[in-house]
Amino acid sequence: MSGAGWVQFVVLIIVLLVTAPLLGRYIARVYGDEKKAPGDRVFLPVERLIYRICRVDPEREQRWTRYALSLIGFSLVSFLALFGLQRLQGSLPLNPVELPSVAPNVAFNVAVSFTTNTNWQAYGGESTMSHLTQMGGLAVQNFVSAAVGMAVMAALIRGLARRRASTLGNFWVDLTRGTVRILLPLSFLVALVLISQGVIQNFNGHTVATTVEGARQLIPGGPGASQIAIKQLGTNGGGFFDMNSAHPFENSTVVSNFVETWAILIIPFAMAFAFGRMVGDRRQGRAVFGIMLAVWGAMSIGAMLTESGGNPRLDDLGVSQTITEDQSGGYLEGKEVRFGPAASGLWAASTTGTSNGSVNSMHDSATPLGGGLAMAHMMFGEVSPGGVGVGLNGLLIMAILAVFIAGLMVGRTPEYLGKKIQAAEMKLVMLYVLAMPAVLLTFAAISAVYGNALGSLNNDGPHGLSEILYGFASAANNNGSAFAGLDSSTTWYTTTQGIAMLVGRFLLIIPVLALAGSMVRKERVPASPGTMPTHTPLFGGLVVGVVVIVAGLTFFPALALGPIVEHLSL
């Protein structure tokens, strides 16, 4: 890997180390129990207007059941509104190129995808969605689906921090605050930076251009920068254009590429510091941050090195590997010359370690190990650092599982943050752990033998299996990235992946809220000599080990038949 690649990686870590604690402190105050929060003079009038219109009493808190019902009801209305908007877009305004209504199966898949913060795209953005659908449907869901994940995070932390309580906050207040106070201001700033780098922001249709050869070319336009900003900050990933952030209109320069990579990571990493402040022990936040950073860093270095290493079969063809990496065809297959292999590998690790799913290169063209690392990163449950809110939820679930395992080793009731972990909590933890692998492996196994599903593959053999595995890993983990060799627009994949998205979202969120509801009722017990400290590097290593072992035992056989076999065949 080149020196420039290492410099970019180190600079990104430094910027995250500076900005994540600052943002984490702000997030903690937004969701904290204090009456006052930063920006009240600006944001409170807006929030009060929203509460008045929606008839919400911001002072009335909810039990976990009411919180979950509010979340599900809001998500259902969001799904129906987005589905209807797509089906009617051919008759609605802000459609300068007169795109027709979206087909029912694709509209269903897209509505589920954006409502669940997956943003899987079984369509081409500029050739399928009108400006109204992009702005009023997809971009709106980019904000609120991310805010839903952040709200669940806030509820879980309250469940761990409060003592002998019965409520977890108010879903509508958390949803509003996350959108108005965190996502909107950050998106505005990032959009301005992207526009300065040449990312488009207009209401144009297609501009007709004539090429040097005299051919006629249609250049698409639209409000791109505003949607791309929240696409990254909300770990959404759904691009305005078909090629996502590999498209120069979405990601124009090395600077925009760096800013978008930072935007993917900043809120998930900041959540760790917010957690430490909200539970009253900053050491816990630093420990969680360290776990996230260690796994993300290892995956990033692995992806950067494998993508910079190229294809050894080029030597067999007589192609010299002594050419500099930025010139070697093996290194750059499926990648943008603007960024190169190292930046592409770093992006791939970041987008799959979160629930983002945007791409600046084609993962289907990655080396077997590079693509396998991206797939495995999703299979970890996207906890390093994970999506906005939901990543921290997943890591805390793994921390509770690690505490339980440690408790079994020493023969005492496990505790986390002073609260005992008992049978009821462990049942919810196991529901969380098993839901995603069950739907992923079931649908992938059926697709590997079902004729109509096999017809969507661009490759056979181990790479074809990797395409199937990656597709369902992306859907079940609410990621949205893809091995683009898989045609996911068929009825089979739009339906099964839609189901996988719903399972990966709601069958994980509901156990988390139930766990929070169980924990909030408990009193904290005093620490004793037998209490395992959960802020130390030793505990961090235990949590990493649990994450790797759980994912390894679950997915290694499938990975062995896909990317590992393909790598060994080289």
Chain-wise SSE layout:
Layout: H1 3-31, H2 40-54, H3 64-88, H4 104-115, H5 125-128, H6 131-161, H7 171-196, E1 207-210, E2 216-219, H8 224-233, H9 254-278, H10 282-309, H11 313-316, H12 329-332, H13 340-353, H14 368-379, H15 390-410, E3 415-416, E4 419-420, H16 423-447, H17 451-454, H18 461-476, H19 491-520, H20 537-569
Helix pairs in contact: 1-9, 1-13, 2-7, 3-4, 3-6, 3-19, 4-19, 6-7, 6-8, 6-19, 7-8, 8-9, 9-10, 9-13, 10-13, 10-14, 10-20, 13-14, 14-18, 14-20, 15-16, 15-20, 16-18, 16-19, 18-19, 18-20
Structural class: mainly alpha
Major sheet attributes: 2 strands, antiparallel
Poorly predicted ranges: 320-330
- What's the helix count? 20
| Distance, first to last CA | 20 Å
Number of domains: 1
Q: Could you give the order of the helices and strands?
A: HHHHHHHEEHHHHHHHHEEHHHHH
Overall pLDDT metric = 91
Query: What is the global morphology?
Result: globular
User: Order of strands side by side in the largest beta sheet?
Assistant: 1-2
How many E-type strands? 4
- State the helical fraction: 55-70%
Strand content: under 5%
Rg calc: 23 Å
Output the keywords:
two-stranded antiparallel ribbon, 570 residues, 20 helices
What does this structure look like?
The protein is mostly helical and about 575 residues long. The chain has one domain (about 5-570). The chain is about 65% helix and about 0% strand. The protein has helices at about 5-30, 40-55, 65-90, 105-115, 125-130, 130-160, 170-195, 225-235, 255-280, 280-310, 315, 330, 340-355, 370-380, 390-410, 425-445, 450-455, 460-475, 490-520, 535-570; strands spanning about 205-210, 215-220, 415, 420.
